[in-house]
Structures are given as structure tokens and as C-alpha cells.
Design goal:
Layout: H1 2-11, E1 28-31, E2 34-38, H2 51-64, H3 79-92, E3 96-100, H4 103-114, E4 120-124, H5 129-137, E5 141-145, H6 150-159, E6 166-171, H7 183-192, E7 196-200, H8 215-218, E8 227-231, E9 241-245, H9 247-256, H10 258-261, H11 268-283, H12 285-305, E10 316-322, H13 324-336, E11 339-340, E12 343-344, E13 354-359, H14 366-382
Parallel strand pairs: 2-11, 4-5, 4-6, 6-7, 7-8
Antiparallel strand pairs: 1-2, 3-9, 8-9, 10-13, 12-13
Helix pairs in contact: 2-11, 3-11, 4-5, 12-14
Bound molecules: pyridoxal-5'-phosphate.
Pyridoxal-5'-phosphate (PLP) binds near residues 102, 130 and 233.
Length: about 375
């Protein structure tokens, strides 16, 4: 039965396999015995290998052990967890913050706790899978609206009884398209219809906004969105996730969010690494400046070469291909050129929208980017994509 299902996926060019790295995360990595320029990492600010971040993880391990030994509510709340949560609350300008072991766990734990039976959840169709799973786990009714389509969302809200609890769910910066959600309009709608707005800013945290506080800061809405979730495994170079918000909400989630309650606390090392990363994010805005300069250089170069890019405004730059077989083959051509930029296929993206997802970081040099553009040109021409 499993063989047969794998065979079916294979026939559609939808099987996946691991691509092991034999080095740290880049930007030049060792893969399959070769030196490869990585254009796939979410370590946007190069913090996963920053000496201060690594040293903090080592020291936390030495002081507090490799594992927390219990869930947060039993005996697994150690000083690195407390320090991280207060630093995150300060960074986001909220009363409190609650951390989770991953973004996936945060979304599947928080959303069902926020809206119960009798409520309604309206989510963007291109929301991350963990948000969709969180919506499905809730006992509330769940509908999707067309991607970033405010009119569609408004019509769904208008049909709804205003008395029932309603939650609007969106990514801040969409992980597979690199575009932003229209937060000002979403805030306005949420206000008009007395709904709550939950934003998952996994890719925006540390990247968007003058201080890296995320997509809400980018739109000048820092203080107007009480439900902001972010992750620590991308620009923070560590692992885990958080929700920052009013202290009553945080205490409520601590008591009701099953993926917070029923799991071992994150290792002290990852909490300490995230706190160190946050210090650097606040201290070194030049990392964000390098990231954006690299993004401009690569985006304008790919556009000039004639690739069909999604309307990205971020370091995530998908080259749209459509067919999964052609996307895979293009990724192989790129790999032969010494570049790793993965083919993203259904079910991660909708049918017919397979793509090469390219990301840059602050650690790429201008010459890395020029080298990448030359490779994209050769691979694109040999496949007649440009
Ligand atoms: C990566 C991602 C997650 C999952 O976060 P992890 O910490 O990797 O589990 C959730 N939401 C979005 C939008 C993401 O891009």
C-alpha cells in the first residue's frame, strides 16, 4: 500500500527526499561532496553560525544541561526560557510572550485555544500548512478566502453573525510567494466586524520593519495587532516560536494551548541561542541592510534575465515554473551549476504553481550573487525558460 502510494507520487514527480548537508548552513555548503552556493536557507541574517549565538548555546548547555527534562509547566522552565520570553516581550512591545518548541507547534496549539466550537475562522488560502492544521484542529467552523483578497474576506465576514467569535488568520510574509499580507486593510476589517486578527510572521520576524520587529512594524501597526506569532528558527538562527501579547492572553494560552502543555520544554541551548540572536538583531541593523541590498541585486538580476518571478517584495523570490517535472529538472540544472535552490511542488503550493524558491541572506557577497546570476542564465537558457 505504501509502495503503491509512493509510486503514484513518483509518477506525478511529487516524491521528496532529503538533501543532506555536510557542513554548517552557508552560504557556501558541502552537498554531495561538492561546494554548493546555498540559495535556500531561512537563516536570513546569518545568525545560526554567529559566534555569540553558538557560545550562548554552549554555555546554556553547560549550566543547565542538554535537555529541559520536563514540560514547561512541570519543572522544565529554566532561566534561558524566562530570559527569552521577557526579551521577546520587550522587543515586540507587549506585556508578555510565550514560547513554543516550533512554529508548527505554536500554530496548532494557539489557534484551537483562541476559537472554540461555535466560532468561525477565516484563513488566507495560501497560509502555511501549520496554520491550516491549527484551523482544522479547532472545533470552530473554518473557511478560506482567496489569497490577499480583501473583498472576498469582507463578503465572508458580512455573511457571518457578528455575535460569534471570529478569527482572521494570515501569514505576515508569505513563505512560498514572498509577498506581504495587506495588514492595514485586514486590521480595518477586523475592527469593522469585531473579529480578531492572528498573524504568523515566521519570515517577517527579524527581516521586516526598520527594527526587524516584523511585518506589523513594516506597516506601522506594531501595537494594533494583539495576536502576533513569530518563529526563532529562521532569522533568529535557532529554533522555536513565540506569541507576544497581553499578559492575560499569555496566561490563558499557558493554561489551554495543548502543544505548549503536553510537550517537553525546548532545550535550554535553543532558548539561549535565540536570546543572543535577538540581541544581535537589535544591535546590528547593518545585517538587515546587507540582506535587502542582496535581495535587490538578485531580484533585479533575475528580472533582467527574463525569469517569471512572483510579485515578491522580500528575500523570498520564487521563479514560477508551473509543471513539477520541469521545476525539478531546472533545480537539477542549477545544482549542476553549483547552486542549490529547491523546486517547491504541491502540496506545499497549489497545483500548477510549482516553482524554484530562491532566498538570499545577509551573508551572501555581491560576487556570490553575480555567480548565481550567471548560473541562472546558463541553466535557464539550456532549458529554454528564458
Ligand atoms: C516555517 C514556518 C512555520 C513553522 O515554523 P517552525 O518553527 O519551522 O516549525 C510556520 N509558519 C510559517 C509561515 C512558516 O514559514
Amino acid at each position: 500500500m505504501f509502495e503503491q502510494r509512493l509510486g503514484e507520487l513518483g509518477a506525478q514527480h511529487l516524491t521528496r527526499r532529503l538533501t543532506p548537508l555536510h557542513s554548517s548552513v552557508g552560504p557556501v555548503v558541502e552537498m554531495a561532496g561538492r561546494q554548493i552556493l546555498l540559495l535556500a536557507s531561512n537563516d536570513y541574517l546569518g545568525l545560526a553560525n554567529h559566534p555569540e549565538v553558538v557560545q550562548s548555546a554552549i554555555e546554556a548547555t553547560q549550566h543547565f544541561g542538554a535537555g529541559a527534562g520536563a514540560s514547561r509547566l512541570i519543572s522544565g522552565s529554566l532561566p534561558p526560557h524566562q530570559e527569552l520570553e521577557s526579551a521577546l516581550a520587550q522587543f515586540k512591545g507587549t506585556e508578555a510572550a510565550l514560547t513554543f518548541s516550533s512554529g508548527y507547534l505554536a500554530n496548532i496549539g494557539i489557534i484551537p485555544a483562541l476559537v472554540e466550537q461555535g466560532g468561525l475562522i477565516l484563513a488566507d488560502r495560501l497560509c502555511h500548512a501549520s496554520l491550516i492544521d491549527g484551523c482544522r484542529l479547532s472545533a470552530a467552523d473554518f473557511r478560506v478566502y482567496r489569497h490577499n483578497d480583501i473583498d472576498h474576506l469582507r463578503s465572508l465576514l458580512a455573511k457571518n453573525r457578528r455575535t460569534r467569535r471570529t478569527l482572521i488568520v494570515t501569514d505576515g510574509l508569505f513563505s512560498m510567494d514572498g509577498d506581504l499580507s495587506p495588514l492595514p486593510e485586514l486590521c480595518q476589517l477586523a475592527n469593522d466586524y469585531k473579529a480578531d486578527l492572528y498573524i504568523d510572521d515566521a519570515h517577517g520576524t527579524g527581516v521586516m520593519g526598520p527594527h526587524g520587529r516584523g511585518t506589523a512594524e513594516h506597516f506601522g501597526l506594531d501595537t494594533q495587532i494583539p495576536l502576533q506569532m513569530g518563529t526563532l528558527g529562521k532569522a533568529f538562527g535557532s529554533s522555536g516560536a513565540y506569541l507576544a501579547g497581553p499578559s492575560t492572553l499569555i496566561r490563558y494560552l499557558m493554561n489551554t494551548s495543548r502543544s505548549f502543555i503536553f510537550t517537553t520544554a525546548p532545550p535550554p541551548s535553543s532558548a539561549a541561542a535565540a536570546t543572543a540572536a535577538l540581541r544581535i538583531i537589535q544591535r546590528e541593523p547593518e545585517r538587515r541592510a546587507r540582506l535587502w541590498a542582496n535581495r535587490e541585486r538578485l531580484f533585479s538580476g533575475l528580472t533582467r534575465l527574463g525569469f517569471s518571478l512572483s510579485p515578491s517584495v522580500s528575500p523570498i523570490m520564487p521563479i514560477l515554473i508551473g509543471n513539477p517535472e520541469i521545476a525539478l529538472s531546472f533545480a537539477e540544472h542549477l545544482f549542476a551549476e553549483g547552486l542549490f535552490a529547491p523546486a517547491i511542488r504541491p502540496p506545499t503550493v497549489p497545483d500548477g504553481t510549482s516553482r524554484i524558491r530562491v532566498t538570499v541572506t545577509s551573508e551572501h557577497t555581491p560576487s556570490h550573487i553575480d555567480q548565481a546570476l550567471a548560473s541562472f542564465q546558463r541553466a535557464g537558457q539550456s532549458m529554454r525558460l528564458i
